[in-house]
Amino acid sequence: MNKSEKKRLQKEYLEQQKKQFLDSLPMPFAQFSQLFDYLDAQSEENNCAHNFDMTITFLKENKIPIDNVLDWLRNHGAGCDCEVLLNTEEYFE
Q1: Measured between alpha carbons, how far is 81 from 47 in angstroms, rounded to an integer?
Q2: Ordered DSSP codes for the chain
Q3: Environment class of residue 30 by beta-carbon count within 10 Å: exposed (0-12), middle (13-18) or buried (19+)?
Q4: End-to-end Cα separation, the chain, in angstroms
Q5: Burial level of 69, CB count in 10 A (0-12/13-18/19+)?
């Protein structure tokens, strides 16, 4: 396999991984960005209660199915609101 073939395969693999990630999201990518912004703002005023209260509030206000999102967050390292920012936001960078 030559160098250009290897680069092409690597690019295809990365694109496939990105598509699989986006397909796994329980809500649109843009709403995750909004959730992160919301939690950033809320965490300036409130300490994390080590639950998903702030996340649930955001989801309810935006009429987003709660259980699907919380399951996804838990499966990606979040156990509470602060861990949504600490452990899952990096997936979106």
Answers
A1: 10
A2: --HHHHHHHHHHHHHHHHHHHHHH-SS-HHHHHHHHHHHHHHHHHS---SSSHHHHHHHHHTT--HHHHHHHHHHTT-SSHHHIIIIIGGGG-
A3: exposed
A4: 31
A5: buried
Among 29, 37, 72, smallest CA distance to 54 is for 37
Q: Note the pLDDT of residue 90.
A: 87
Q: Structure tokens of 36?
A: 């992160």
State both tokens at 58: 């955001």
Q: CB-side exposure of 30: number of CA atoms within 13 Å?
A: 1
Rg (CA), the chain: 16
Residue 57 burial (CB count, 10 A) = 14
Q: How confident is the model at residue 81 (pLDDT cuts 50, 70, 90)?
A: very high
